[in-house]
Amino acid sequence: MEFISAEVLPGGQVASALTACQHWGLKTRYVGKVGDDAAADLQRRELAQAGVEAHLLSVPGCCSQVAFILVDQSCGERTILWKRDPRLTQPPEELEREWIVRARALLVDGHDTAAAATAARWAREAGIPVTADIDNLYSGVEALLENVDYLVASRDFPARLTGDENLLQSLPLIHRRYGCRVAGATLGPEGVLVWDGVRFHYAAAYKVNAVDTTGAGDIFHGAFVYALLQEWPLGRALDFSCAAAGLNCTALGARGGIRPLTEIEQLMCEGSRHAPAYDQKVLGRSAAS
Description:
Layout: H1 13-23, E1 29-34, H2 38-50, E2 53-58, E3 66-71, E4 78-83, H3 97-101, E5 106-109, H4 113-125, E6 130-133, H5 141-145, E7 150-153, H6 157-162, H7 167-178, E8 182-186, E9 192-195, E10 200-203, H8 216-229, H9 234-248, H10 261-270, H11 280-288
Parallel strand pairs: 1-2, 5-6, 6-7, 7-8
Antiparallel strand pairs: 3-4, 8-9, 9-10
């Protein structure tokens, strides 16, 4: 099968989210581990250019985590092939507490769960809200979730964690089991659904001319952190995050479509949405039961 073109672009869940936050005026700090190759040089260069304070530990003789992403030109959907050397695992002892407790919010992903759990515990002790972008049932993830305030996972994660494929059942269960303030899941073109302990909040996705859906979830989480620090109501935070994620899909790469705040607000005000995946009356009945 012939491909049309190829590009080498930076990515990474938290790295891309923080790049977006920096673009929107926040001061950001990224902690991670890379190899000693061209991919590591690219990540350092791109984070520095964005203004992100980066603490990247390098592993000699090791390749950085890389992914080959096949994008369907007709719709922007992608297939990801990735590889991560075990030597890139970051243990808790490589973290510095000051990196965490000097922040206003902490965003973690599911990789290196022991280090992420330590960082989340430090943040919780310091009264700093913790958000998490988790897409798989990593070893030790439950210890991490005990100190997560805002969990907005990938669509399939709640079922993997609880064994219940019905989000109307699994999200309240996660909320009760781990004490999160909010437990939710992103749903791609169907938007996002979250449970806050009292009721469900649902935001439908915005319609855009999608070129590449890579990084949509990453930018969603960056936008959610931004909204959290603006102290916006949860509904507005979800709308803003969906709009930012949608616009990112209009360009190539995980960070190619990070747009200014004004454009995100314009899409929120004037843009059309996909048909809702959940009826508000059904959500209301589920909350009442």
